[in-house]
Design a protein that fits this description.
binds adenosine-5'-triphosphate; Beta-Lactamase; Helix Hairpins; 5-stranded mixed sheet; 6-stranded antiparallel sheet; about 525 residues; alpha+beta; binds magnesium ion
């Protein structure tokens, strides 16, 4: 049979072990260990001191020590250099001597290092207020308490580190622009970041714990490998297991489905067990629109190119007929059409090239002194000769300043605006007007046509954009205003639709006055 104190000793150690797994608060746990140590060693007071990089040496918990003495100890400890190994060897005899002196020999103590990963992370002290030497057995006993306390500190540090890491991860997930879903191996939502909540128009509470299939709902069958199919094929740790899928998502309370691309892959533990499936969800609306634009652009451009080519070919084969003698008038009219259509083709190809060049970032300006009134009058004269339906007005104040600009390019801007005005207004006056302001000049082209639908306002300067109704009745590539905007921007100016003008459309641009 074990002697009585041995039994108690065993019970206490058991109790501490249990507390180690149950109690998460470090100070509560350390105090428990300290109290038991004091009791086991039939002491009256004690403390546990810890040291770490951040705080140096400090007293974590104490028991039965008068305030004045405690303050004294605290100050002394805090003044000790941290992270120095022998410092702690110095502490024990030093603290014992101090206490002995202060209590005039009434207190005797024992202190043991707490060691974790070969480093001294703290010390545990027990004091007696009667004169009795601590035996080897006492020291051994205190050592086992010191070990327990070291484990507690380690656990707490690990716990804090893990918590910090998971907070960091959460912050990272929430700052991500893509929606991210973390799924359990049973494919239930374990975490959904802010971006995903926004995409799905729902809250985290509504998502947590839900099966994947109830969260990611497709409006029509998606393209790519579905999650179910990927799982069916068996995740494997050795293979690059990232799958991609595109489709239209059904959202809570929103009628329009959202086009998204989802990539997902498994996360394995070190021993190969499936921990999570991570899905990242990206809104591909813009991408889709660009794709659609490209497709419609190709059809528009091929159509646009085909029309003049067909005309040219028609006239040429007519003129080449051997069986007919064409009189001079017909030949010259036909050649005029051929020339006009060839010019039209050249312009279109130039626009396309410009657009491509702009996208590659290469627009170099040849700036020189430019007089807008002069350029406007020249263009107005030229356009008057081309149309019976429209009249042209040029309206600039007499003191309109010259600006530094690339004349060729600015002429392109005005030509595009005038072409639009003629194309989209059946008749009436087209006015080129100018106004000078302290820092810039503003030039506008206005017409008396149907105007621009407010819904189209934010798009008309986009590449390939044409409003729906216009696209049905007129020809064009939707490049004109895009080129205008890029040219004006290259001059550090702005271009906009004047929304205050109600009699048709008025498009204005500004150019800075100083070079
Ligand atoms: P392109 O100029 O390349 O031949 P486009 O005229 O269609 O083709 P933009 O000049 O970029 O292309 O114009 C874009 C769209 O803006 C037009 O399709 C039309 O819907 C609208 N728009 C532009 N100017 C006017 C205007 N003066 N009146 C009404 N709508 C206009
Ligand atoms: Mg145009």
């Amino acid at each position: 049979m074990l002697p009585d104190y041995r039994v108690r000793q065993r019970d206490y150690l058991l109790e501490i072990s249990r507390a180690l797994t149950e109690e998460l608060d470090l100070d509560t746990l350390l105090l428990r260990i300290l109290r038991i140590a004091i009791e086991m060693l039939t002491g009256h007071a004690g403390f546990i001191a810890l040291q770490d990089e951040k705080h140096g040496w400090h007293i974590a918990v104490h028991e039965g020590i008068a305030d004045a003495l405690l303050n004294y100890l605290k100050n002394w400890l805090e003044a000790q250099p941290s992270e120095s190994e022998d410092a702690s060897e110095v502490h024990v005899p030093e603290i014992n001597r101090m206490l002995n002196d202060i209590s005039m020999g009434m207190l005797t103590g024992v202190g043991i290092n707490m060691i974790f990963q070969k480093q001294i992370i703290g010390q545990i002290y027990v004091f007696r207020n009667y004169h009795g030497l601590f035996s080897t057995n006492d020291r051994m006993l205190l050592t086992s308490f010191a070990n327990q306390a070291a484990i507690a500190v380690r656990n707490a540090r690990l716990y804090n580190e893990t918590r910090e890491q998971s907070l960091r991860l959460e912050a990272l997930l929430d700052s991500a622009a893509d929606g991210i879903l973390i799924l359990t191996p049973e494919l239930k939502v374990e975490h959904a970041n802010k971006a995903l909540q926004r995409l799905l128009n729902t809250s985290e509470e509504a998502l947590l714990g839900k099966p994947f299939a109830n969260v990611i709902r497709w409006a029509n069958p998606p393209q790519g490998t579905t999650l179910e199919a990927a799982i069916g094929s068996g995740w494997s740790q050795n293979v690059q297991n990232v799958f991609y899928l595109e489709g239209d998502l059904i959202r809570e309370g929103v009628r329009e489905p959202l086009p998204v691309g989802i990539s997902y892959g498994p996360l394995f533990s070190a021993n190969g067990a499936l921990l999570n499936v991570i899905a990242s969800v990206r809104d591909i609306t813009r991408f889709r629109t660009a794709e659609e634009m490209k497709t419609s652009f190709i059809s528009v451009v091929s159509h646009e190119l085909k029309t003049p080519i067909a005309l040219i070919k028609g006239y040429v084969s007519t003129l080449r007929r051997d069986d007919v003698e064409w009189d001079r008038g017909v030949v010259s009219d036909s050649l005029a059409v051929i020339e006009e259509e060839a010019d039209h083709l050249t312009l279109m190809v130039e626009d396309l090239l410009d657009a491509t060049r702009l996208q590659a970032g290469g627009l170099t300006l040849k700036k020189a002194e430019l007089s807008f009134p002069q350029l406007a009058r020249f263009l107005a004269d030229r356009y008057t000769a081309q149309t019976d339906q429209h009249s042209f007005a040029v309206d600039f104040p007499p003191d309109f300043p010259t600006v530094q600009a690339d004349e060729e390019r600015i002429r392109q801007v005005l030509t595009n605006l005038l072409n639009n005005a003629m194309k989209y207004s059946p008749s009436g006056e087209i006015r080129i007007s100018g106004k000078s302001r302290p820092k810039d000049v503003v030039v506008c082209v206005s017409d008396h046509g149907p105007g621009i639908d407010p819904r189209d306002l934010s798009y008309v300067f986009d590449r390939f954009y044409r409003s729906d109704d216009v696209a049905k009745t007129t020809k064009g590539t939707g490049l004109g205003l895009y080129l205008c905007r890029e040219i004006v921007r290259a001059h550090e100016g702005k271009i906009w639709v004047d929304e205050t003008y109600k009699e048709g459309s008025r498009i204005c641009f500004s150019l800075p006055r100083e070079a």
